[in-house]
Amino acid sequence: MPASKQTMRSKRYQDKAGWVSKSYKLKKEVVEDFAKACEKSGVSQAGQLSSMMKEYIEQVNREHPD
Length: 66
What we know:
The chain has helices spanning about 5-15, 30-40, 45-65. By secondary structure, the chain is mainly α. The longest helix is centred in the last third of the chain and has 19 residues, at about 45-65. The radius of gyration is 16 Å and the shape is extended. The chain starts with a helix and ends with a helix.
């Protein structure tokens, strides 16, 4: 079945904006606890993961400058 026009538009936007989809295998308990914590604090899981990744990148770059 061909993709809908909306799906194609969304894909073009995501490609242009630099969005990528990643898949990781994590322990179920960690994932569920993370989802609950994000819900409690009112943040999206993707947004929180992005924030933590950026913080980690900055930390590593400070500790190991090129």
